[in-house]
Amino acid sequence: MQLSPIARALEAALSASCPGDAPLGVAVSGGGDSVALLLALAGRRVHAVTVDHGLRPEATAEARFVAETCARLGLPHETLRWRGWDGQGNLQDAARRARYRLIADWAAGQGIGRVALGHTRDDQAETVLMRLARGAGVDGLSAMAPERDALGVTWLRPFLGLSRADLRAFLTERGQGWIEDPSNEDARFDRVQARRALATLAPLGITAEGLAATAARMGSVRAALEAATLAAAQHVAREDRGDVVLARAGLDALQDEIARRLLVAALCWVASSDYPPRAEALAETLAALDSAPRATLHGCLIAREADGLRIAREPAAVAGTVAQADALWDGRWRLDGPRGPGLEIRALGEAGLGDCPDWRATGLPRASLLASPGIWQGKRLVAAPLAGLSKGWQARLTTTLSQRIISH
């Protein structure tokens, strides 16, 4: 069958973004963008997933619509449900973060390393506009990347060069329906306001195409800054069993922006945080360290050492963090060893460190060890690999500082 011009454009975008025949996940909400992505991917090794956030009564019907569409296309589909909203904080942000984590866990269980998302050029432009309103710098204005590694998954956005209208034209051409989310017209949400502002700004020449082009240029600048930060880290930073040690003389010799990026990357890596600390808070903390021996920021403990700074996890930040013995702890630690019933991972803390007579021989500061992972069975410490009590267990990091520098 000869493809139409719009179908050829979608196929070219998919070929460039999703090469190879490895299994590919695709997130489908039922809206026009994600349904177009699903339809364009039909015929490949695709597994579809829908997240029902449970926030609207229509959500269940939308998930059912996606399941029925996948069944007609002969594609496997699964619906994931989130019921974690506690009414606190930013609803859209909480739902977005939960959605990514649910999909990442699902992909890991399916042996899928890549997940495609249906974001378009319009989404990119709206994101740039929202971040302009918040005074964003280079990172914020580079907006969404075509490819990004996070949560153990490579997230692909093959349609960032195509418009929302392009995708709906493709669906109409194929006779495929979709569901319009009523929240897309709810002016309480920033994205809806940005969408309406774009229509108002169009006569001034501020268009989705122009803003997306700005994001692409900023993305190139960001990549150059990340490369410079990575090069600096190789000379200035040292990983020490989950901590980051920065040579003060080397750090002081860096250009301000590169030094800031390195510090932020270290803080985010140690804290397993998706978001950086506020610039004002970082500046205040560094100023305090000119006279104080230590300070806390972003869930981290920053301590002055003889010739540098040590950034470690703040013990209080992980005091209540618990995971099953075979699960990821605090976003980056896995513990391998002899499994048994009732085992879980918790921070060592004062009680645990007291059961590790050889902890001083490890060379890690006491504060770092208090926040390190241990294997517990009830109130009994079974093993603390970083504190000299291995008992056949090993602690390993699942990410590196270098990956954190270049992954966001």
Automatic annotation (TrEMBL):
One of its GO terms (cellular component) is cytoplasm. SUPFAM superfamilies: Adenine nucleotide alpha hydrolases-like. It catalyses: cytidine(34) in tRNA(Ile2) + L-lysine + ATP = lysidine(34) in tRNA(Ile2) + AMP + diphosphate + H(+). ATP binds at S29, G30, G31, G32, D33, S34. It is found in: Cytoplasm. Its EC number is 6.3.4.19. Keywords: ATP-binding, Cytoplasm, Ligase, Nucleotide-binding, tRNA processing. GO terms for biological process: tRNA modification. Belongs to the tRNA(Ile)-lysidine synthase family. The N-terminal region contains the highly conserved SGGXDS motif, predicted to be a P-loop motif involved in ATP binding. This is tRNA(Ile)-lysidine synthase. It comes from Rhodovulum steppense.
